[in-house]
Amino acid sequence: MKKQKTFEQAFQGAKRMSEKYVEKGAYEFYPDADIVEEVQKGLAKNEVEFGYRYCP
After folding, report:
1. pLDDT at 56
2. In 1-56, where do the E strands start and end?
3. In angstroms, how far apart are the furthest CA atoms of the chain?
4. How far apart are the C-alpha atoms of 21 and 27, rounded to whole Å?
5. Helix or strand holding residue 38 (H, E)
6. pTM here?
7. How confident is the model at residue 3 (pLDDT cuts 50, 70, 90)?
8. Cα–Cα distance for residue pair 44/13, rounded to 1 Å
9. 35: CB partners within 8 A, 6+ apart
10. Quick one: 6 exposed, middle or buried, by C-beta within 10 A (0-12, 13-18, 19+)?
């Protein structure tokens, strides 16, 4: 059974994942960093609650 991640662990993972996604593709983050962070937090919250980074 998988060990439950804390919100902070999931948030750091969501940040790393999204940063790598932007680096590898022809993508860029939305210009408002606060919005980007809220989406990353939503991904982390869903990972903690449901076990997956469902789109918020």
Report:
1. 73
2. none
3. 39
4. 8
5. helix 33-50
6. 0.88
7. confident
8. 8
9. none
10. exposed
